[in-house]
């Protein structure tokens, strides 16, 4: 009996295996087909998808087309017109070259190809199903190529079951479309989803293409960036630092017009923005690197989004220098981070320049928050600190208000150093057990419209009002979602029409049910627009449109950094932005209610993102702060 067990796999099975690397989801099909259309010297490319690409992906171009023989050969593995010998791998200027895309797609879908060259009277029509050619015939068609991919993964049900929801898959398709549309602003593109036009992009300049893709607001933030040497040319745009976001995703690198992903190069750009943006935010940029093909290797991965340079340090240095130079010429001395929810959701508005500021650092956000100093003029403070620094033994009397404020500032700045974890754990009790016997509401006060101070048995309780309210709302929202109990919605007298970019519109669709339970009443207005009819009653003090946009940004940040489930993500995002913000003055009734609700929570010590809500400064610690 023969013991030979090694056998050659059938082509159809080999193609299915190869497709696992090249075609991971519908967006992969869009990428490969549109890149082929770009390589075919097309001037207009139309993309049509249905059901997030699961039912249909169609790419129509007006490029050079294919002959009957070429159309048939394009379905063979490793058949390509881009290269012919090994040396060509080091001189690649086309998007595709491996000859894997079409045969891989044909192995896992039902594919129809119609194509005609300019000098041919008739074109060719091919119908392929699971790598098997079902039909090949002449057809009357326009110059160019139309490829229709139907029922993706029809013969690999396990792969089809692993696809995400339609909004998620649509988001990935839009991202791939954006990459190619940014790379070639000289080509006209259009995208249709379920027979509705999502994008209509005329051939134009890069700046206009960016605005057409991402919205009119990008007109305000684009800073041109251009630098060149004999070896490398860099051009494109970076975003104004004041528009930096908490979410990664709007960072685009192109090497010889090919979109790539590079953590190393991203670090070069991020370091150029150092001290201009908070550490946990990301700037916008669309940067093109032109370099001789001999100095790079794009044949690293089948998706061709990774690349190797023969001298990465050189590229890093030139890129960093060019971005720094662009920012130096176009940025203003001060950036208003407080107007951008992603940079500093807890920041207070910066006051006129004649006032002084102290900086407060928050673990979850940036150190760019600015708080007004107490209402003592600058000259008095400078004289006060000068007297303290020059002569600590001075008996010169200090104005009562200045002394109190100075002690309070010192106390707050050193509380984390003098407070021990043992004291914290000892005092984690219901608030009613912490207060002095017989203490009434007069024992509480608000400090700088940001903190709540309360007298407790062991000393002084300091509460962050925003973090406290965020915890209260979060637990309330989670309970609503778990019990399927709809929150109270504040109906708008005049509903807001909100235009979203396609990715955010897909995100809204994915979270529509959850947001509805939380109190948002949203109606589809068509073509990436929604009508906001109502919003959560707890957030009545907020601008409804701004609140929804803030929550979308927070959801995206949570998704990229925390990988939270949908309900958890939405509850956190809404709680963070619906909570009372620093700077909001509270009445004694509101203070009492906030404190009572906080200590009724399941977790009253930490906000949902881990920030500490309150701290106790013991009597001993207070006494030590006032020692001479």
Automatic annotation (TrEMBL):
<dbReference type="GO" id="GO:0030983">
    <property type="term" value="F:mismatched DNA binding"/>
</dbReference>
<dbReference type="GO" id="GO:0005524">
    <property type="term" value="F:ATP binding"/>
</dbReference>
<comment type="function">
    <text>This protein is involved in the repair of mismatches in DNA. It is required for dam-dependent methyl-directed DNA mismatch repair. May act as a 'molecular matchmaker', a protein that promotes the formation of a stable complex between two or more DNA-binding proteins in an ATP-dependent manner without itself being part of a final effector complex.</text>
</comment>
<dbReference type="InterPro" id="IPR037198">
    <property type="entry name" value="MutL_C_sf"/>
</dbReference>
<feature type="domain" description="MutL C-terminal dimerisation">
    <location>
        <begin position="443"/>
        <end position="586"/>
    </location>
</feature>
<dbReference type="Pfam" id="PF08676">
    <property type="entry name" value="MutL_C"/>
</dbReference>
<feature type="domain" description="DNA mismatch repair protein S5">
    <location>
        <begin position="210"/>
        <end position="328"/>
    </location>
</feature>
<dbReference type="InterPro" id="IPR042120">
    <property type="entry name" value="MutL_C_dimsub"/>
</dbReference>
<dbReference type="InterPro" id="IPR042121">
    <property type="entry name" value="MutL_C_regsub"/>
</dbReference>
<dbReference type="GO" id="GO:0140664">
    <property type="term" value="F:ATP-dependent DNA damage sensor activity"/>
</dbReference>
<dbReference type="InterPro" id="IPR014721">
    <property type="entry name" value="Ribsml_uS5_D2-typ_fold_subgr"/>
</dbReference>
<dbReference type="GO" id="GO:0006298">
    <property type="term" value="P:mismatch repair"/>
</dbReference>
<dbReference type="InterPro" id="IPR002099">
    <property type="entry name" value="MutL/Mlh/PMS"/>
</dbReference>
<dbReference type="InterPro" id="IPR038973">
    <property type="entry name" value="MutL/Mlh/Pms-like"/>
</dbReference>
<protein>
    <recommendedName>
        <fullName>DNA mismatch repair protein MutL</fullName>
    </recommendedName>
</protein>
<dbReference type="GO" id="GO:0032300">
    <property type="term" value="C:mismatch repair complex"/>
</dbReference>
<keyword id="KW-0234">DNA repair</keyword>
<dbReference type="GO" id="GO:0016887">
    <property type="term" value="F:ATP hydrolysis activity"/>
</dbReference>
<dbReference type="Pfam" id="PF13589">
    <property type="entry name" value="HATPase_c_3"/>
</dbReference>
<dbReference type="InterPro" id="IPR014790">
    <property type="entry name" value="MutL_C"/>
</dbReference>
<dbReference type="Pfam" id="PF01119">
    <property type="entry name" value="DNA_mis_repair"/>
</dbReference>
<dbReference type="InterPro" id="IPR013507">
    <property type="entry name" value="DNA_mismatch_S5_2-like"/>
</dbReference>
<keyword id="KW-0227">DNA damage</keyword>
<dbReference type="InterPro" id="IPR036890">
    <property type="entry name" value="HATPase_C_sf"/>
</dbReference>
<dbReference type="InterPro" id="IPR014762">
    <property type="entry name" value="DNA_mismatch_repair_CS"/>
</dbReference>
<comment type="similarity">
    <text>Belongs to the DNA mismatch repair MutL/HexB family.</text>
</comment>
<dbReference type="InterPro" id="IPR020568">
    <property type="entry name" value="Ribosomal_Su5_D2-typ_SF"/>
</dbReference>
<dbReference type="InterPro" id="IPR020667">
    <property type="entry name" value="DNA_mismatch_repair_MutL"/>
</dbReference>
């Amino acid at each position: 009996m023969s013991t030979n067990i090694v056998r050659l796999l059938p082509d159809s099975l080999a193609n299915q295996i190869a497709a696992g690397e090249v075609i991971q989801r519908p967006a992969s099909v869009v990428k490969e087909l549109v890149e082929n259309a770009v390589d075919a010297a097309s001037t207009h490319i139309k993309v049509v998808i249905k059901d997030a690409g699961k039912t249909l992906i169609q790419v129509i171009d007006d490029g050079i087309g294919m002959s009957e023989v070429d159309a048939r050969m394009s379905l063979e593995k490793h058949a390509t017109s881009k290269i012919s010998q090994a040396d060509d791998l080091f001189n690649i200027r086309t998007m595709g070259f491996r000859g894997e895309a079409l045969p891989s797609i044909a192995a896992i879908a039902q594919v129809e190809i119609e194509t005609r060259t300019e000098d041919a009277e008739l074109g060719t029509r091919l119908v392929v199903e699971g790598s098997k050619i079902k039909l090949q015939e002449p057809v009357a068609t326009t110059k160019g190529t139309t490829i229709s991919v139907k029922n993706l993964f029809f013969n690999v049900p396990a792969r089809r079951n692993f696809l995400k929801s339609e909004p998620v898959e649509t988001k990935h398709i839009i991202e791939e479309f954006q990459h190619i549309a940014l790379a070639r602003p000289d080509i006209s593109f259009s995208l249709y989803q379920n027979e509705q036009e999502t994008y209509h992009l005329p051939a134009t300049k890069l700046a206009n293409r960016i605005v057409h893709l991402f919205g009119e607001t990008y007109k305000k933030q684009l800073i041109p960036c251009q630098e060149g040497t004999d070896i490398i040319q860099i051009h494109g745009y970076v975003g104004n630092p004041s528009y930096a976001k908490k979410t990664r995703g709007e960072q685009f690198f192109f090497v010889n017009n090919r979109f790539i992903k590079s953590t190393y190069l991203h670090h070069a750009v991020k370091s150029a923005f150092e001290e201009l943006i908070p550490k946990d935010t990301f700037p916008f940029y669309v940067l093109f690197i032109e370099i001789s093909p001999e100095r790079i290797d794009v044949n690293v991965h089948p998706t061709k989004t990774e690349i190797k340079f023969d001298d990465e340090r050189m590229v890093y240095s030139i890129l960093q220098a060019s971005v720094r130079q662009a920012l130096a010429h176009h940025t203003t001395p001060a950036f208003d981070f407080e107007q951008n929810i992603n940079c500093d959701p807890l920041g207070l508005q910066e006051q006129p320049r004649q006032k002084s500021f102290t900086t407060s650092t928050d673990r979850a956000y940036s150190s760019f928050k600015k708080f007004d100093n107490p209402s003592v003029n600058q000259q008095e403070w400078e004289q006060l600190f000068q007297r303290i620094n020059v002569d600590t033994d001075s008996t010169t009397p200090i104005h009562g208000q200045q002394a109190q404020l100075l002690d309070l500032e010192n106390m707050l700045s050193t509380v984390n150093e003098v407070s021990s974890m043992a004291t914290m754990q000892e005092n984690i009790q219901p608030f009613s057990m912490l207060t002095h016997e017989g203490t009434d509401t007069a024992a509480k006060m608000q400090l700088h419209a940001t903190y709540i101070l309360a007298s407790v048995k062991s000393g002084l309780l300091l509460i962050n009002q925003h973090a406290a309210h965020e915890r209260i709302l979060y637990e309330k929202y989670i309970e609503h979602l778990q019990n399927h109990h709809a929150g109270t919605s504040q109906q708008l007298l005049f509903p807001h029409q909100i235009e979203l970019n396609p990715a955010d519109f897909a995100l809204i669709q994915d979270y529509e049910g959850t947001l509805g339970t939380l109190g948002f009443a949203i109606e589809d207005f068509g073509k990436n627009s929604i009508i906001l009819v109502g919003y959560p009653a707890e957030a009545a003090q907020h601008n409804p449109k701004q609140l929804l946009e803030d929550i979308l940004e927070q959801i995206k940040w949570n998704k990229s950094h925390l990988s939270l489930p949908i309900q958890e993500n939405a509850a956190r995002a809404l709680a963070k932005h619906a909570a009372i913000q620093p700077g909001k003055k509270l009445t004694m009734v509101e203070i009492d209610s906030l404190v009572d609700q906080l200590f009724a929570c399941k977790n009253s010590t930490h906000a949902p993102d881990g920030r500490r809500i309150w701290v106790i400064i013991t009597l001993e610690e207070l006494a030590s702060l006032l020692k001479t």
